[in-house]
Write a structure and sequence with these properties.
It is built from 44 helices and 15 strands. The strands form four sheets. A six-stranded mixed β-sheet has the order 7-9-10-11-8-12, sandwiched between helices. A three-stranded parallel β-sheet has the order 1-3-2, covered by helices on one side. It has a three-stranded parallel β-sheet with strand order 4-5-6, with no helix packed on it. About 1% of the residues have low confidence.
């Protein structure tokens, strides 16, 4: 802190010299207060507060660089966002254990936490333990009201102020000034308590003086203070030289980072036998691996978590729902939810599973939690929620003991687990277990795709599908009322709309919305024409967050949106972590979690996707305003996927990213994707072949030819020559033909037909393309050099071989051209002779490198004879 105070005065040499002299004349234990007093006198309270904020920001993970942190110091919304992002603070071991210890203390026995620290680490530890911190700042008169008596709420009073609210107290004058209500507040909260002091050196301030007064009143107040000192002698501030009565007991050699974790372990050991409650049937139910029991106790413990209005607004913005969102007062039960409730209660026995299916942003996940919550209220129902990202074992479900209860298994993003779901339903059907039901939710397209790709069989007789989409006018009325309960920020643009007209505006926006009737309408009505500005502000916040690998959170989000917007694929955690140079756990906590809080993206199985297509579109459009080029992101992401997938089997998702350039309509992005593929792995000829094709398709023929020639000169470096060389020659031939080098094109197509050992087996598709390529290339030569007989024979044979309608139509065109030039249909023997002669002549008439290399082998065409049945 002293170094930060000194640095804040470094621009004035006289100030710096005076501060150094002051510190030389001051005892080391008083350096902090002396330096703070100096900054206050020379630069004012605003400068002092800025130093405190800069110091607190050093506790962020990943570490915020000082030059970036300095831009936050006067930005109240940014500081508030960082303050609320509890996962982004580095919580010391002792404080982390403290939060968990307090969570184990019964509500009626918990007292408040008093601290002279300015930072939010205590609140972060409580939040991590599932508690709700109630912060009170008492930097003026010293009073601190007690927290509301609610389950899981713990009061944290900052007696010297808080880092981003008001002024903080540091100097002797500040700390000793009269604070008339401090003693009264301390009397109120410390009477009939045991007060434990940790990590506090006891400054000479009114706090320690007030505590001494309470100790003197000890018998009357029924107070006991256990004061832990870090050193080997008691350090109690003003109390050090006083005679200590029995109600204040100092302890030495106390390291809170060692003590509190040890106490936590001891308490857990003592509580373990008492935690067994053999009362109701619910408490005796054996656990099911990967699933969590949803019962009234579970719901009660969650309802006060993350209950802040800011959290509510982020849910209205489209954040994935929590139990607080679904079962509190943020999300009304829609009419469709009531219909599904009734259907489950009055279900026909033939259905073992129910699927909530619909587009993104229709409220499926919220509905799923609401249905689970309602079913859990009845003793005869056992409700289980899939909580393990890795999925579950079907055998564990089949082994659930049969009881009088009906078991409901809830699975969100069910397409991720479609194979496990199908196997489970097959087991339940075979065993006749009608007491177990599955309730699923998935995007309609994702479910269909997963069933097809996984070859999963889910018979319609055991699965009932509920189409979830759109809202009614009654739903709109309930939703707008819920927004209004959370104030103007929740209403957004609707705050200027008369109360009676808000529902109509929302309902009107939902009708015919092609991007998700509910979420799309929500964004439209709450932001209107300001939606782009809303996304711009989101991106600005993300741009300030630096990740451990050196990139910003905005770059990560831009990449996620880019591949999603262009329909390429989803980005998996593994690919994103490789590109960001972070571990998967870091990406999960520092990227996925934060984007989720911003209602920007969510995790879907092992992938990360934007919450809404409209958001992704705006993000990609705005990237250049933040100095981020989409082509650079595309190149980097594809390269990362190729690097991670190197040596592994490429599934459909990998292929979709790696070969994105074949489908992208934007030239710059397509070329960037192709470049990224080859930079990710320079030992794959198939990737060079793909790159050549992309450049050729966008008329960058000189580049396509250069890449082909470079690959040929270093052919030995590639690992897949035998599998790819024929295709490579065919692609090179097309590029040469496009550039007007028709003889070279004919020669390259001819080389692709030869019996060359390093080229492997000739396929019918390759033979068709090569023969058609020769026919086309020769047909482009000047009159008198077109060789109509050879061209026609090649085209006729290609027509006979063509495996697809597209190739048949192509061969037909080339055959018609040759016929117009005089070609007459030949018998098999003459056709064979004409084709072989044409291949030899084509190789001979070109000086391109493959023709020179294979010239002496131009008659080796036995594979062609066999494949074409010549």
């Amino acid at each position: 802190m002293v170094e930060l105070f000194k640095r804040s005065m470094s621009k004035d040499r006289e100030d710096q010299r005076d501060l150094d002299q002051l510190l030389d004349e001051t005892a080391p234990r008083d350096h902090y207060q002396a330096a703070a007093q100096f900054v206050l006198e020379r630069a004012g309270i605003a400068r002092l507060n800025r130093v405190v904020r800069l110091a607190v920001l050093t506790a962020r993970s990943p570490r915020i660089p000082p030059d970036l942190a300095s831009t936050y110091l006067d930005n109240a919304p940014q500081l508030e966002q960082l303050d609320n992002d509890w996962r982004g603070w580095v919580i010391p071991r002792g404080l982390a254990a403290l939060g968990r210890l307090i969570e184990m203390i019964p509500q009626e026995s918990r007292g408040p936490i008093l601290t002279t620290n300015f930072d939010p680490l205590i609140e972060a530890s409580l939040t991590a333990a599932g508690l709700v911190p109630h912060r009170v700042c008492s930097d003026v008169d010293g009073s601190f009201p007690t927290s509301p008596s609610l389950p899981n709420v713990v009061s944290v009073s900052h007696l010297h102020g808080y880092w981003n609210e008001g002024d903080t107290l540091h100097t002797g004058a500040q700390l000793t000034r009269d604070r008339p209500r401090l003693l009264g507040s301390l009397r109120q909260v410390l009477t009939r308590t045991t007060c434990i002091v940790l990590g506090y050196g006891g400054w000479d301030d009114l706090l320690t003086e007030s505590m001494w007064r309470l100790v003197e009143e000890g018998a009357e107040r029924d107070i006991e203070i256990l004061w832990g000192c870090h050193g080997e002698t008691p350090q109690l501030g003003r109390l050090t030289d006083k005679a200590l009565p029995g109600r204040l007991q100092p302890y030495v050699g106390v390291d809170a980072n060692r003590l509190l974790p040890a106490v936590e372990v001891a308490v857990r050991e003592r509580l373990r036998p008492a935690s067994r409650k053999p009362s109701s049937e619910r408490s005796r139910r054996p656990p099911v691996p990967a699933f969590e029991d949803i019962d009234p106790e579970f719901i009660e413990s969650h309802l006060l978590r993350d209950a802040s209005p800011i959290s509510a607004v982020s849910y209205f913005d489209g954040r994935s729902p929590t139990w607080v969102d679904a079962l509190g007062d943020r999300a009304p039960r829609l009419e469709r939810t009531h219909e599904i409730d009734r259907a489950l209660v009055e279900q026909p026995e033939s259905h073992l599973a129910y699927l909530l299916s619909g587009p993104t942003g229709e409220g499926k996940s919220t509905m799923l939690r609401q249905i689970a919550g309602k079913l859990s209220q009845e003793e005869r129902n056992r409700v289980l929620w899939l909580s393990a990202a890795s999925g579950f074992e079907p055998v564990d479900v089949a082994n659930i003991p049969s009881t009088s209860s009906r078991v409901w298994l809830f699975i969100d993003d069910a397409d991720v687990y479609v194979r496990q779901v199908a196997a489970t339903l097959a087991d339940l059907d075979r065993l006749g277990r009608t007491d177990i039901r599955l309730v699923l939710a998935a995007r309609d397209g994702d479910w269909t795709r997963a069933v097809q790709m996984q070859s999963a069989t889910v018979p319609s007789r055991v699965l009932r599908v509920f189409d979830v989409g759109g809202i009614t006018s009654g739903d709109a009325e309930q939703i707008t009322r819920a927004w209004a309960r959370f104030g103007e920020r929740a209403l957004g643009k609707l705050k200027s709309v008369p109360t009676g007209e808000r529902a109509a505006a929302l309902f009107g926006a939902s009708e015919g919305n092609s991007q998700g009737a509910l979420l799309g309408a929500l964004l439209e009505t709450r932001y209107g024409n300001d939606f782009r500005q809303h996304i711009w502000e989101l991106m600005k916040r993300l741009g300030h967050v630096k990740l451990p690998g050196g990139r910003s959170l905005l770059e990560a989000y831009g990449a996620i949106c880019l591949v999603y917007r262009h329909g390429i694929s989803r980005l998996s955690l593994a690919y994103l972590s490789s590109w960001l140079e972070m571990s998967e756990s870091e990406v999960d906590g520092l990227v996925v979690y934060r984007l989720g809080r911003e209602a920007a993206a969510e995790r879907h199985g092992d992938s990360i996707v934007p919450r809404h297509r409209r958001i992704a579109e705006e993000v990609v459009d705005l990237l250049p305003e933040f100095g981020i080029e989409a082509v650079d992101l595309m190149r980097q992401i594809v390269a990362s996927v190729v690097r991670v997938a190197r040596g592994a089997r490429w599934d459909a998702d990998i292929l979709s990213v790696v070969y994105a350039g074949q489908r992208l309509q934007d030239k710059a992005l397509a070329i960037a994707a192709a470049d990224g593929a080859t930079s990710g792995d320079d030992r794959q000829l198939r990737l060079v072949n793909y790159r050549v094709g992309v450049y050729r398709d966008f008329a960058e023929l000189d580049q396509a030819l250069r890449f082909s020639e470079e690959a040929w000169t270093s052919l030995d470096r590639f690992d897949d020559v035998r599998l790819t060389l024929r295709r490579f020659l065919l692609s090179w031939a097309r590029a040469a033909g496009g550039a007007g080098r028709y003889r070279d094109s004919a020669a390259l197509n001819a080389c692709a037909l030869l019996d060359i050992p390093e080229m492997g087996i000739l396929s019918a598709d390759e033979a068709t393309r090569a023969l058609s390529g020769i026919a086309w290339s020769l047909g482009m030569l000047p009159d008198g050099e077109r060789h109509s007989t050879g061209r026609g024979a090649c085209a006729e044979s290609a027509l006979y071989l063509a495996p697809t309608e597209e190739l048949r139509e192509q061969a037909t065109r080339y055959l018609d051209d040759a016929s117009r030039d005089g070609y007459i249909e030949l018998d098999t023997a003459k056709q064979r002779g004409a084709i072989l002669a044409t291949i030899r002549e084509s190789v001979k008439n070109s000086r391109i490198a493959p023709a020179r290399r294979y010239g002496t082998q131009s008659g080796a065409t036995q594979q062609l004879v066999r494949v074409a049945n010549l």
